[in-house]
Amino acid sequence: MKHIVLALVSLAFVVCGSGRAIPLDEQRGLASTPELLKTGIRGVVMFGPTCGVMPADPEPGVCEDRPFQVPLDFLLCDQDYLNCNLVKTESSDEDGRFDVRLAPGFYRITKHEDNSVPAILKIGFEFPIISEQVEVPEAGIIEIIVHAASGIL
Question: What is the reported pTM?
């Protein structure tokens, strides 16, 4: 009976080098309370290009990439970014900024898919296209710029 209980406890927790037990939800990139995680990704989503043809003498700011508010999916991946699982969905704010607490690991950031639109009605790519890969370090917050491709060449 002791062995069964020990096996169940071992399945529920992983003990790190410091001896602190880490719950499974935290291992998967989630935390039961945000203050548990001091690692993650902070960044800004920039949408562009915003002009189809770059004018010879563009006015400052006219064709520059712009901050973009969009729901983002954060997927925890293997080291090669081939096998990924969704761990969190967060939106950037009206200034394109986001701050997400995630466990250390390899993440792919994509635009959140709106499954309310039937797949048969979707034609080609849905813009903006977002696909960034980032490694969250063992300590601290990594800061990035997420590029949202507008589809303008």
Answer: 0.69
